[in-house]
Amino acid sequence: MSLFKHAQFASRHPGIRLWWKSKELDFVTGPVCTSLFNTVRASSSLPDKKKELLDGGPDLQDFISGDLSDKNRWEEYKGNLKRQKGERLRLPPWLKTAIPIGKNYNKLKNTLRNLNLHTVCEEARCPNIGECWGGGEYATATATIMLMGDTCTRGCRFCSVKTARKPPPLDPNEPHNTAKAITEWGLDYVVLTSVDRDDISDGGAEHIAKTVTYLKEMSQKILVECLTPDFRGDLNAVERIALSGLDVYAHNVETVRELQRHVRDPRANFDQSLSVLKHAKKVKPSLLSKTSIMLGLGETDAQVYATMKEVREAAVDCLTLGQYMQPTKRHLKVDEYVSPEKFQHWENVGKELGFLYTASGPLVRSSYKAGEFFLKNLIEKRKLETQ
Amino acid sequence: KITIHFINQDGERTTTTATEGESLLDVVVNKNLDFSGFGACEGTLACSTCHLIFDENVFNKLEPLVDEELDMLDLAYGLTDTSRLGCQVFVQKGMDGMTVQVPQKVNDIRKAAELSWKQ
């Protein structure tokens, strides 16, 4: 390598003598040469299995082309997918995502900082951040804005959002500023989410509801989805938000009934979350309700099916299923990496059970492509109505 | 350097050394001990995931709890009379050789069935 560099250098500066080059050659013919021979001898004494791995494995070309493995499908993946005691699973190839870069991504990041807004995309380390912020194939950038700050009062074992006993007080200008910023962006579909604020009497419901109201005032055509906390079961808070003018009311049950205690903060539970979803629907039947569950935390198929059924019976319209990924070492280890085919199976089950739409995939999150799904369904529904 | 024995949710025992003044949460995190989902709130008394069970003689020598710790401890899974939150207990000389554990994992029906097939 260095010989080549010297040659380049020499050709650009023809006056310089290449005396050190010949020195280098001497060097090469000296000890390095013998050590090269030594390495050749050494590799021939490797065990056969290792030689096979070296011959059959990736070479320099694979690394340069960037396409290291076409073993992206579940059947070809040789790694472990179910966690054994004591080990930590490695990430299967279908979950590897590109590092987020690009104009759109950077623009969004700077805009958010200037407007003092927080996104759950950054706080919870979402793997889709590059895709959603980058705008995907339709160049429609989507971001999920996190209201009421970036610090939560609960510590769930799957979530990396900052936690504190007494987070900083709410910014009273936030509803107005957020609505203004989102309107300026010209987004078609926005998802508003928030942290849990058990330190506030109404859990922050008034704050969220005001943001929705301002948004709807400032922008005629925007569609708003709210992913809300459970307000410790306070149904008045749920009602306040449900009647604020939003289009989709979302609240995540996170996991199957049996694992609630293990996965979520003890202040949250399955029945409380279901009651939130039921009440929102009761108070405004034209609302679309949505929930989400994570797979890969140790649940069984029967438990997932039972959960989906219970959720459907609570009149929830939309369901999303995604793969749990361990955000930091202080959080639960992944118990199983569910294959893309299995996710497809759950999508079919969701359709059978009667959900308006079921978004299911390893990287699917609650608000992933939410706008596209919603708009697609709405357009199709309108088509059927006008026919 | 103080030696502490840890028993994790699967019943596995690990021995490690800690420095005086560190919290037990710091020990678990810094030494990368195999505890799943330990210290989710990073020691801010907003969760109960660093719940540890002590031997009675060690428990009695610990600093008394503050109200905030008690609030969170009450919500902890598998609470015992000698339980404390690991983020509030700081390593001292008198703890050399003590054993702390987390509540053992609840064996669900699947695991029991698996074990019976193996036998």
From TrEMBL, chain B:
SUPFAM superfamilies: 2Fe-2S ferredoxin-like (SSF54292)
Keywords from the UniProt entry: 2Fe-2S, Electron transport, Iron, Iron-sulfur, Metal-binding, Mitochondrion, Transport
Top-level taxon of origin: Eukaryota
Database matches in Pfam families: Fer2
Needed cofactors: [2Fe-2S] cluster
One cellular-component annotation, GO: mitochondrial matrix
Matches recorded under CDD domains: fer2
Major localisation: mitochondrion
Compartments where located: Mitochondrion matrix
GO terms of molecular function: 2 iron, 2 sulfur cluster binding; electron transfer activity; metal ion binding
Domain called 2Fe-2S ferredoxin-type: residue spans: 2-106
GO BP: any one term: P450-containing electron transport chain
InterPro entries reported for this sequence: 2Fe-2S_ferredoxin-like_sf, 2Fe-2S_ferredoxin-type, Adrenodoxin-like, Adrenodoxin_Fe-S_BS, Beta-grasp_dom_sf
PROSITE patterns in alphabetical order: 2FE2S_FER_2 (PS51085), ADX (PS00814)
Homology family: Belongs to the adrenodoxin/putidaredoxin family.
Protein name in UniProt: Adrenodoxin, mitochondrial
Taxonomic lineage: Eukaryota, Metazoa, Chordata, Craniata, Vertebrata
